[in-house]
Design a protein that fits this description.
single chain, mainly alpha
């Protein structure tokens, strides 16, 4: 149950970040089109898109760091990935 909720939340947040990138790119919030605000808008669109893609990649790989804790404190030293799902 816990893994399912984390996966749902992760996918939801990927969609939120990518959605914000699209909204910024099409000027949905109707920011003034001065060169400065246009640059700021595109900067945020690129940042949201990059982070959404990165978070989507982590979601596919199963790497989560919610709470920054180990799932199993008895793991050996080579598997010290924080928040990684067991495979």
């Amino acid at each position: 149950m816990n893994r399912g909720l984390k996966m749902f939340f992760g996918i939801f947040m990927v969609l939120v970040y990518l959605g914000m990138a699209v909204l910024m790119a099409v000027n949905y919030f109707d920011w003034s089109l001065t060169p400065l605000w246009n640059a700021v808008r595109w900067f945020f669109a690129i940042i949201f898109a990059a982070y959404g893609i990165y978070r989507g990649y982590r979601e596919i790989k199963g790497e989560h760091t919610y709470g920054m804790r180990r799932y199993d404190d008895d793991q050996d030293d080579e598997h010290q990935q924080y928040g990684a799902y067991e495979k």
